[in-house]
Amino acid sequence: MNIIIFGPPGAGKGTQAKKIINHFQVPHLSTGSIFRENIKNETPLGKKVKAFMDEGRLVPDDTVVDLVTDELNKEKYNNGVVLDGFPRTVAQAEALDSYFDKKGSQVDAFVTLSVPEEELVNRILSRGEGRSDDTPEKIKTRLKVYHDETAPVHSYYEKKGVIKVIDGLGSIEEIFERILKALS
Ligand code: AMP
Questions:
Q1: Are 89 and 150 in contact (CB under 8 A)?
Q2: Which of 4, 39, 100, 154 has the greatest CB tally within 10 Å of its CB?
Q3: pLDDT (tens digit, 9 = 90+) per residue, 160-177?
Q4: Domain residue spans of the chain
Q5: Fold category of 2-183 in CATH
Q6: CB of 56 closer than 6 A to ligand 1?
Q7: Atom of ligand 1 at shortest range from CA of 86
């Protein structure tokens, strides 16, 4: 089962992705986490993406698509994946579709977490993960990037009929129950 967990920064994608992978026993692929790990380890990929991430801008599509397709080719993803933070542009969504097409696979569910904007900023500022892009100014950039470049991905999948919009307000458990219900 291939699931995309989608929503603006601070919507709770990472938290819910972890619960989904535990429940369905499918691996998690978070592009942001992979980038942060590469920055920490000062790898060539980390050096390439650091400036984009620090500014709250998107890493270029070709870099992200290469990373995700290489990763998805690993055996552990043979039975599915929970994609978190990818695709973030329509070009990435198209690249993912053509990858799945070649493998005879598809996106089975696209779960959008819906959270009001003022709540997003509060959540990011209070989560205290110490991320370099969690400052008020960077959050503003990330929300703008989300509206301009990422939100169209939702419309792209809407046309494919795989969208589940989930109310992202409430406790972690309540939100997870809504996701399970939508996926059943
Ligand atoms: P996240 O952990 O998903 O919030 O991602 C943190 C940052 O990593 C983003 O603000 C981007 O700079 C970068 N990033 C993660 N995933 C992508 C993606 N699919 N496309 C472009 N940039 C990405």
A1: yes
A2: 4
A3: 999 999 999 999 999 999
A4: 2-183
A5: Rossmann fold (3.40.50)
A6: yes
A7: 19
